[in-house]
């Protein structure tokens, strides 16, 4: 692509200035020379942040009530999912139905065009920016797993040499109570060896808390959390309460056709902005007499679950808009028109005129 841009740049700078640049729909072939570019279309991306919780029973769970007065401690492993956060955004992808060709004629003052790696028009008559588009591929699902501490690292020789699980559970429970007494003595300032400053006190309490938690989990069990991100992509059109995806507490994020999950609905309403007048065939043909760009419309996107609105916003949607063009007369020998486009929507962002 970079080589193509360099070659096109050299060709454009060697042209003269008499005829006009001609833009046509589709890809030109044969002996015609020029630049082929695409306009983007909108897609909506829903990113789901979900966490898988895995409960592992403690080694001494059956003694939890006897020694630590912990009630309702399950002896069975469990797995369940929670949906923590939903993010929604729009972005542009190349629209293969909107391909245009800037034909370079002899003695033409043609524009210098910069394209993205996907062939979407980025600018005209502006220095090469070196920017790369980041919308061509879906982000890979990310995963974050919490780490647990091995409680056996804190067990004494007496506990490890116990001749039965009941005796070991009893000794571990006594160790837990001893740790709690030590923490209380430090907090009250009654410990035999009090730390010299607050930082050392905090370090000692944190270490005791870590030991207490690790050994308590031998009775109460532990829960590990694995966070994952899932991406759902939707091509927008007018729709009402369409199933965007489903979520199951047991299975996590599932496809919209999997009835094991509860449905999450999406509604998209065309706001009819801008107002697009009706055009006849002759006017439609005239649209191609210049560099074509998008005038995106706007759509109201709503995401709901159990009649509760989770997301609602108006976003630019190219499919709800129209196309316009920059007249070829703008690119004549007496001026240089600098144009910047939004590569996500194809909209005109900025236009400047500078003398040659």
Reconstruct the topology from this structure:
Layout: H1 2-13, E1 22-25, E2 34-56, H2 64-68, E3 78-103, E4 113-115, E5 121-124, E6 143-145, H3 157-160, H4 165-188, H5 198-220, E7 222-234, E8 239-248, E9 252-254, E10 262-270, H6 281-286, E11 291-305, E12 308-326, E13 335-341, E14 348-355
Antiparallel strand pairs: 1-3, 2-3, 2-7, 4-5, 5-13, 6-7, 8-9, 8-10, 10-11, 11-12, 13-14
Helix pairs in contact: 4-5
Characteristic key phrases:
five-stranded antiparallel sheet, 14 strands, alpha+beta, 356 residues
Gist of the model:
The protein is α+β, with helices and mostly antiparallel strands and 356 residues long. The chain contains 6 helices and 14 strands.
Strand order in the sheet with the most strands: 1-3-2-7-6
Globular, elongated, flat, extended or rod-shaped: what is the shape? elongated
| Cα-to-Cα separation, first versus last residue | 28 Å
Count all strands and give the number: 14
Largest sheet: 5 strands, antiparallel
Name the helicity range.
Answer: 10-25%
Q: What fraction of the residues are assigned to beta strands by DSSP?
A: 35-45%
Q: Which runs of at least 5 residues are low in confidence (pLDDT < 50)? A: 1-20, 135-141
